[in-house]
Structures are given as structure tokens and as C-alpha cells.
Amino acid sequence: MSKSKLRPGDLGAPLSEKEFEELDDFLTSDQTSDETLTIMGLDGYLTALAIGPTTVPPSYWLPRVWGPNEDDAPKFETTDQAQHILGLILRDMNGIITSLEDDPDDFEPVLAFRRIGDREYLDGEAWALGFMEGLMLVRADWQALFDNEQGREWLNPLYLMGSDEILPEEQQLIATAEQREVLTKQIPASVAAIYRFWLPHRQAVHERKLAAAMQRTEPKVGRNDPCPCGSGKKFKKCCGAAAELH
């Protein structure tokens, strides 16, 4: 494993095939718990965070990659190894975001194949479990999608395969490998649709944050400075006086 230091500029670099396999191996190694997400689950988890309405800081979502409890934290051999693996995860997240921004219709989830008899089936159960884990991390923020009839249809394949508890009649919809494969093939279209549903919201939030940042950078007008309205009076004798009255 590489022991190179992680630099901020490195976070924008996509994972190579070798690095992707390295991350896959680590997630299933003896250094992690049985509750740690698989590479498929991680892809679903990060995708939910990437397309949702809320920008969730890594400090909030990273711990859940390893499992629900503090005891699930990985046993890194060194600080350099920890930094390296965390860097791979963050770069994986950025790669998903970039892929969606480039063209959500070309998004390709990391899916598994399951062999039953002499046939191999595409299986998105692990991916959907990760996706729903990411969604439930900020469940309240997704309410508008649950309230939207079409939104519920988009979520349906992810909900059916990725929820811990579903109704008995819903269980019948994922009872066979054939049924799960049909639902799995719906995942890319669902992701693209959900991404577009939340896009205006994410843009509005970004614009509000940008406006707030710009306001914070504007110099504060002193009471004896010329009023910014252009009257030629001192601020305290012009708009400043009005502000004091209110």
C-alpha cells in the first residue's frame, strides 16, 4: 500500500482501477468489521449523499462507512494508512459527483453479479442497502421526494432492495433473482431522475451560501464614513440614523 501523504489537490483525481481494487480489498479485510460497507454498498451510500438535497460534511458520514458503532472503526496499521484510505474514499465521492455533473444519464453504479445455477444475475441489493443508508442519514431532508408521487416511483427499486424492514407483500416483489435483476436495471434511471429533482434545490442553497459569503466580505460602514447611498452625508446622519430609528 502506498504511504504517500494526501495533499488537498489530490482529492480531485479519479481513482485508478488499481486504487479502486485496493479500496475494495481494504473494506473486506480483517482490519474492518463485518458491518463495514462493501465497495458496492459504499458506491450506493456515496451516491445518495451526492444527489440528495443536503451537503453533508465528511465528518458526519465517514464514520458510518465502517459501521453503526464506534467499535466498528477500522484498525489502521499506521496514520499514513488511515490517511491514504480516507483519501481514496473522498476521491471516490468526488468522482461520483463529477460523473453526475457531466451527464447523470451516463451514471454507472457499481453492481454485483450473483450466479444461481447456470445463470448469472445482476444484483443491486448491496448497492441499494448503501444508498438507503446514506438517505436515512439525513432522512428529514428528503421529505419532499417522499411526498412526490413520481419521486416515490423513482425510489421504489432502491427502497425495496435496500430497506431493512418492508411489508410482506413488498417482500414478494424481491423474492427471486429475476425480480431483483429487473429492479437493479432501474437504478441508473432512478439516480438520474432523483439527481435532477434535487438539482434546483442544491443550486438555490449554493446561491444563498454564496450571497452570505459575499455579505460577510463587504467592509462595515463606520458611523462617520460617507453614507454608501451617495448622499454626501455621514452615515450616522443619513441611512445610519434611519437604521437606529428602526
TrEMBL record:
<dbReference type="Pfam" id="PF02810">
    <property type="entry name" value="SEC-C"/>
</dbReference>
<dbReference type="Pfam" id="PF03695">
    <property type="entry name" value="UPF0149"/>
</dbReference>
<dbReference type="InterPro" id="IPR011978">
    <property type="entry name" value="YgfB-like"/>
</dbReference>
<dbReference type="InterPro" id="IPR004027">
    <property type="entry name" value="SEC_C_motif"/>
</dbReference>
<protein>
    <recommendedName>
        <fullName>YecA family protein</fullName>
    </recommendedName>
</protein>
<dbReference type="InterPro" id="IPR036255">
    <property type="entry name" value="YgfB-like_sf"/>
</dbReference>
